[in-house]
């Protein structure tokens, strides 16, 4: 037991090169420290796709209503993707769907880039003329994701076809679509 304490003490007395990357600034690659760049508190996503055998997040989906601040919603999604190391994200509103990719080049929000966007109706189908609630939109997105591996690519808008085929489809095919939190839906 004493030898373990001595090893730990000698290890921590060594140079800063042995510290975890998130605790130091890297002078050779000029990457900022992780805590310096995540300005936004990570959100609680509406839908996540995780690996079947681990809790690793492959895809995160944030659903927002028509009155939501898109800039703030986008920043929250990007922050979450950087924070958990998620490669693919979607921001869905009643008007549009935006697809994002984490390039893992930095610990800042700039590492997450927009891959494509399209009108929500083109991707998920026609909605009723009444205002669509977030829970209805969430249910539609969840059903779309679950049916994605068996759906034909002919129904995807060309503006987002590459994002779906290259990022979203592999994530859903290799993972499990899950709720990001508790579901509160009215029965009947």
Blueprint of the fold:
Elements: H1 2-13, H2 34-37, E1 47-51, E2 57-63, H3 70-84, E3 88-92, E4 96-102, E5 112-119, H4 120-124, H5 134-147, H6 161-173, E6 175-179
Could you walk me through the main structural features you see in this protein, from its secondary elements to its overall organization?
This protein is α+β, with helices and mostly antiparallel strands and 188 residues long. The protein contains six helices and six strands; from the N terminus they run H-H-E-E-H-E-E-E-H-H-H-E. Strand 1 (47-51) and strand 2 (57-63) form a beta hairpin. It has one domain: tt1808, chain A. Mean pLDDT is 78; it is low at 1-38. 34% of the residues lie in helices and 20% in strands. The protein has a six-stranded mixed sheet, with helices on both faces.
- Approximate shape: globular
Instruction: Give the integer mean of the pLDDT values.
Output: 78
- Output the structural class: alpha+beta
Q: What is the topology, as strand order, of the major beta sheet? A: 5-4-3-2-1-6
Task: Characterize the largest beta sheet: strand count, sense, and whether it forms a barrel.
Answer: 6 strands, mixed
Tally of strands:
6
Series of H and E elements: HHEEHEEEHHHE
According to CATH, the fold-level topology is: tt1808, chain A
CATH top level?
A: Alpha Beta
Tell me the number of structural domains: 1
Low-confidence stretches: 1-38
Strand content: 15-25%
Rg (C-alpha, Å): 20 Å
Question: How much helix, percentage-wise, in residues?
Answer: 25-40%
* CATH-scheme architecture: Alpha-Beta Complex
Distance between the termini: 62 Å
Helix count, per DSSP?
6
């Amino acid at each position: 037991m004493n030898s373990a304490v001595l090893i730990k003490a000698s290890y921590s007395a060594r140079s800063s090169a042995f510290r975890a990357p998130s605790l130091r600034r890297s002078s050779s690659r000029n990457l900022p420290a992780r805590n310096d760049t995540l300005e936004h508190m990570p959100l609680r996503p509406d839908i996540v796709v995780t690996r079947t055998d681990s809790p690793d997040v492959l895809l995160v989906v944030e659903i927002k209503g028509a009155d939501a601040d898109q800039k703030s919603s986008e920043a929250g999604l990007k922050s979450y993707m950087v924070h958990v190391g998620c490669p693919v994200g979607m921001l869905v509103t009643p008007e549009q769907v935006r697809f994002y990719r984490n390039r893992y080049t930095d610990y800042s929000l700039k590492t997450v880039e927009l891959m494509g966007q399209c009108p929500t109706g083109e991707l998920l189908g026609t909605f009723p003329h009444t205002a669509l609630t977030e829970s209805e939109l969430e249910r539609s997105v969840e059903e779309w994701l679950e049916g994605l591996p068996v759906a034909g690519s002919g129904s995807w808008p060309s503006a987002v076809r590459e994002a779906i085929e290259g990022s979203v489809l592999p994530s859903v095919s290799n993972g499990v679509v899950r709720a990001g939190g508790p579901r509160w839906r009215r029965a009947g």
